[in-house]
Amino acid sequence: MGTETVRHERTVRLPNPGGIHARTAARFATLARSYQSRILVTKDGHASDGKSLLSLLLLGAAGEDEVTISTLGADSREALDALVSLVQRGFSSCALQEDCPT
Asked: Is residue 46 flagged as an active site residue?
């Protein structure tokens, strides 16, 4: 299997009370766009482009909802790990910086 077809996915619960709103969608999409892989976020059978702020907002994901993040491409493992970390940190911008405390 070529690296361009490597797919990873993980289901995570949105820990922040507001779920995916404008600020969190922007942080997610910005981080997603830094990877070459295709990124999808799925909730209740509806998939959105993880690199599109508007597409993420249309999911209507609220706090405590579960979403599945899927990545497909050469850097899919790294992309998935980074995006899951961002969600688990409650979309804190700290997740985008190398020097954040763990």
From this structure: no
Q: 69-100 b/e with 16+ CB inside 10 Å = b? A: bbbbbeebebbbebbbbbbebebeeebbeeee
pTM, to two decimals: 0.86
| Separation of alpha carbons 14 and 38, rounded Å | 21
Q: 81: Cβ–Cβ under 8 A, 6 or more apart, which residues?
A: none
Could you say which of 7, 8, 21, 89 is catalytic?
Answer: 21
pLDDT in tens, 30-56: 999 999 999 999 999 999 999 999 999
